[in-house]
Amino acid sequence: QLGLPLSCMCRVPCNTMFGSQHQMDVALLDRLIKDDVESGKLPLLLVANAGTPGAGHTDKLGRLKELCEQYNMWLHVEGVNLATLALGYVSSSVLAATKCDSMTLTLGSWLGLPAVPAVTLYRHEDPSLSLAAGLTSSQPVEKLRALPLWLSLQYLGHDGIVERIKHASQLSQRLLENLKNLDFIKTSVEDELSSPVVVFKFFREYSNRGQTSQAAQASTIQHPIISNDRHIYDTFNQWLGEQLAQLVPASGVDVVELEDEGTCVRFSPLMTSAVLGTEVQDVDQLVDCLKMKIPVLTSTLQLREEFEQEVRRTVGLLYIEDLSWPGLGVVRYNYHSDGKDDDKQEKELEKINTEILKKLNELESDLTFSLGPEFGGQKNCVYIGMVTEDLDVSELVETIAATGKEIEENSRLLENMTEVVRKGIQEAQLQLQKANEERLLEEGLLRQIPVVGSVLNWFSPFQASPKGRTFNLTAGSLESTESTYVSKAQGTGTTPPPTPTSSLAKQRLPGQKIFKRSLRSSDAFSETSSVSHCDDLEKMDQRTPAPSPGHEQGPLETAKTEEQKEGAQATQTDTEDIRNDKPPHDCTKVEEQESQR
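RE: above sequence
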């Protein structure tokens, strides 16, 4: 619009050492202006941000205004934080925007009115200069552009505009307060009291619980991270942002790529709440979903290295390094080919890994298995998604390896069986041909003549047993069918060997799913307690309850007690008589009575 070429533009870098990394470097700007003046160039215009598009940070507008006055430059400000000028409390960094020469306001997105155009406000000391610059026009068509804005302002009024901006700011503050109480969440907020934009990301070694706002702000995302780790965190935060946007669409969260922080999740209700109708309940739901996803992210990140080591130790599996996959990892089953070409080996590899994926999805587990992303992923691999902390990594890897080995053996068995059947058919044809020749020799030449053969067969029938061949798939050999015609029943052949039971099958608790660690400590406790309970019952049965001193026995109880005593004495007496080889007292009494008679 200024009619200047692109060579007249100069981009000013942001801070690298001190201050926010999203703010313009004032010292470097001063140096660039001096270089332009010394080279004969005229500094004309400076465009600053009051709320950067990505993180929502505000440049040091006060210092920039001083430089512009020093070098006679025009200062233009734009950004989402300019909306907070309508509120009662405005931060000093945004309040300095009132001293600029011009500013651009995007009222359409702030108020939820897409048809309302952006507005540029500028200072004009001399109206003739504005007319000469083409900023004012007397054309009716151009004046009608402001009609939607005028109608909207008349409909909402001053209180309605302030209420919408205030509501968006309150949503940001509510989310920011909740994020302070969450572990493994980093925030990048310039002013916690008035910033309408909240940018956060997942980072495992970080916990801002118990820290002050200054300490949390000082420990924002400014530490260098290893390239691989940063790539993994970017992938996980990309997945987190997509999940939150899918679970809570009314929140309006999106994923942004920042130069220093990497991939982050942004919540800017001032740009989305008026259109989506975001309320406080949506922010609370967003926090609840975030609390549910953080344990999954931490568990997956922690078990990712263990999964890699376990796969590398397992024979037959190949670990695929894919930093762009948000999950436990990627594994491929290696197919050991014997003299096969590359095309056939590739087809076999694809077939085996696809069959592994199919069998894994048939298992009753909470894991997600897939072939990876549609674009950019590795081929012939099994992609494992997010996991929880109770995952048994060793069992998972063993199951994948055992499944792949079983599929490979079945494939080879099918190939070998096909070859054996083909050879068996050829051998059977040769044997049947030989048997047919022997039959012709036994019948003789005369029986082959049409009329003579019929007469001979009528006078002297030739009894020939039908011969055939049967192929035993279990033994892989040809057998004669004579026993079948003699016994009038088809033989079963040898019994196939029993199918071996997989050694990977583990005893599970009722309701416990596969690939989950069993609570062995609780199981041991329950078994010990049950055994001790049985011992206590046996001891209680062996004990004889003693009557209390103050307890009086009734007649029924006395009779029972006497009967028990007499029974015990009789039993003891019988035992002693048996040991002493003496007859019992009853036998002695009978003999005395007979002698008296």
